[in-house]
């Protein structure tokens, strides 16, 4: 990758750090959570020093992720408000997936797909945090009726699986769209990348220039 | 500890067969509530045999002591005063504890391989050395039985004295009961014995006497003879038609394979998307525009 003084700044260092805390916590949560999810994944508990440690650590890592996600939410929510252009983008998502972006409406800092993902993740994390608290046997389960604990267990497992799917799509999209990962590593993207993938954002921050 | 003479029918969080070449006799404990005098000798015997000394609690105004099952009290007598017929007080005393379900909700819910074992004789036993302390067994149990210890964060409950049964002895509570209200033997024999007791009770005016062996959990290996089998709720809230909650069945049933499959599909789908469609790169035109 060539780095160029004309590169555009996409994320500040605090934004990147925040994102990585959420991301690392998510990976730890997915690995430890899957260990309880199905016997096939139980060996994943070895990454945490065994089943007991996985059980102890998971909810605390959950709290770290939930809190750092709240911080991220306040950084990015305004940029993720869905506009009519985003709805059109989402309507044409099939073309995008097919690798043809010629007719896609110009995207701002985030395209319709990214914005949809943002709001889906907000819902997932809210549901996981609430249900996770209810099934946290060591401290909180005693406060809730058994029916609610059963419902929360089902909810937590289903939403967690859904969120893992969403994150796979999120990570894949970043790999698929070449030149994107560096935005989260160094904070910058090339001008060409911005014009290609987020032309409205490109126009906005360069004033239409090159 | 697993005894060789007790072969295994089911093991928590395990997808392959457990040692099961020997078929042992299905056993059961029969508790005849009409014969129980509430002396709590069985509670004492349980403490003695299992070497457990619960904290001495406080009197809460009723005979129940301790007030609830705990990690150190695996059986408690629950006393209820009811008037099924107006003016005729009945003192119904139920020995509460694990029912040793044929279809155990605790075992279904447990995520730790081998932490819960169901022997082929029907006993459901917790193996605390594999327990991770998550409390899923409590979530799964239709009878609210398992308790997590505050000392070691492991789940405990009645073992039906699997260690005694494994060497041909009856459970400690059975051995102790001074009125013969608790008996133990082959499940078939216990059902037979219960039939005799039910007929006797019916002859004494308890028209609704019956055996409590709830089929919603596949039957149990601890059964009650009830004077009022039509109203098990009278006995300190014994559930009428217990079964594993549909929520737990969904959670531990199709949800897991289905969503695991979905995760795999999304991951593989992404990989194949990449190798069929190729990367999403900046077009040559735009690339050139910025090269000078
Ligand atoms: C947000 C805060 C979270 C809290 C407080 C929390 C808490 C819990 C608790 C208490 C358990 C039961 C096991 C244990 O006691 O350790 C659990 C299980 C689990 N968690 Fe979380 N969690 C959170 C977030 C997440 C996230 C983000 C994921 C997604 C990757 C996740 C995935 C799972 C899975 C897959 C299980 C196993 C579910 C099952 O056994 O069916 N959790 N969680
Ligand atoms: S607390 Fe122990 S026995 Fe109960 S479900 Fe969890 S691992 Fe299994
Ligand atoms: S009564 Fe509860 S703890 Fe005992 S075997 Fe049934 S489900 Fe398990």
Characterization of this structure:
The complex is a heterodimer of chains A (210) and B (292). The longest helix of chain A has 31 residues, at 146-176. In chain A, helix 1 runs antiparallel to helix 2, helix 2 (51-76) packs across helix 5 (112-134) and helix 8 (191-197) packs across helix 9. Chain A is elongated and about 60 Å long. Chain A is mainly α. Helix content of chain A is 66%, strand content 2%. Chain A has a two-stranded antiparallel sheet. Chain B is of the alpha+beta class. Chain B contains nine helices and eleven strands. In chain B, strand 5 and strand 6 (124-126) form a beta hairpin. Chain B is elongated, with a radius of gyration of 26 Å. Chain B starts with 7 loop residues before the first strand and ends with a helix. The chains are: A mainly alpha (210), B alpha+beta (292). At the A-B interface, helix 1, helix 2, helix 6 and helix 8 of A face helix 3, helix 7, helix 8 and helix 9 of B. The site of one iron/sulfur cluster (SF4) has 16 residues of chain B, from helix 3.
């Amino acid at each position: 990758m060539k780095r160029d003084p004309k590169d555009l700044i996409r994320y500040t260092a605090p934004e990147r750090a925040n994102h990585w805390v959420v991301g690392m916590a998510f990976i730890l949560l997915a690995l430890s959570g899957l260990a309880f999810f199905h016997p096939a994944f139980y060996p994943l508990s070895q990454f945490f020093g065994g089943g007991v440690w996985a059980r102890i650590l998971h909810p605390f890592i959950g709290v770290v992720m939930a809190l750092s996600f709240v911080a991220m939410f306040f950084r990015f929510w305004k940029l993720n408000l869905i506009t009519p252009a985003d709805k059109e983008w989402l309507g044409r998502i099939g073309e995008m997936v097919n690798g043809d972006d010629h007719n896609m409406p110009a995207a701002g800092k985030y395209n319709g797909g990214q914005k949809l993902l943002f709001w889906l993740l907000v819902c997932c994390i809210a549901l996981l945090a609430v249900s996770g608290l209810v099934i946290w046997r060591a401290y909180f389960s005693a406060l809730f009726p058994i029916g609610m604990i059963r419902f929360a267990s089902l909810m937590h497992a289903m939403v967690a699986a859904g969120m893992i799917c969403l994150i796979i799509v999120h990570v894949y999209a970043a790999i698929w769209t070449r030149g994107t990962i560096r935005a989260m590593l160094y904070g910058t993207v090339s001008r060409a990348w911005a014009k290609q993938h987020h032309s409205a954002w490109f126009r906005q921050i360069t004033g239409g220039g090159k | 500890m697993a005894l060789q003479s007790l072969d295994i029918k089911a093991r928590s969080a395990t997808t392959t067969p457990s040692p099961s070449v020997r078929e042992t006799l299905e056993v059961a404990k029969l508790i005849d509530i009409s014969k129980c005098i509430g002396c709590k000798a069985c509670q004492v015997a349980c403490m003695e045999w299992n070497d457990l000394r619960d904290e001495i609690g406080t009197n809460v105004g009723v005979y129940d002591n301790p007030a609830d099952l705990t990690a150190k009290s695996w059986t408690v007598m629950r006393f209820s005063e009811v008037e099924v017929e107006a003016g005729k007080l009945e003192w119904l005393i139920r020995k509460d504890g694990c029912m040793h379900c044929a279809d155990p909700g605790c075992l279904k819910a447990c995520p730790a391989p081998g932490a819960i074992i169901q022997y082929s004789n029907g006993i459901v036993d917790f193996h605390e050395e594999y327990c991770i302390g998550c409390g899923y067994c409590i979530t799964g149990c239709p009878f609210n039985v398992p308790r997590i210890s505050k000392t070691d964060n492991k789940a405990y409950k009645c073992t039906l004295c699997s260690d005694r049964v494994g060497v041909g002895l009856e459970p400690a509570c059975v051995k102790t009961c001074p009125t013969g209200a608790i008996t133990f033997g082959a499940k078939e024999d216990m059902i037979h014995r219960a039939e005799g007791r039910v007929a006797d009770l019916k002859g004494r005016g308890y028209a609704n006497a019956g055996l409590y062996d709830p089929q919603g959990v596949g039957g149990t290996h601890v059964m009650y003879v009830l004077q009022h089998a039509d109203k098990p709720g009278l006995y300190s809230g014994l559930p009428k038609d217990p079964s594993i909650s549909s929520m737990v069945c969904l959670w531990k049933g199709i949800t897991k394979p289905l969503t695991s499959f979905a995760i795999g599909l999304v991951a593989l789908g992404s990989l194949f998307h990449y190798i069929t469609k190729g990367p999403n790169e900046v077009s040559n035109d735009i690339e050139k525009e910025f090269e000078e």
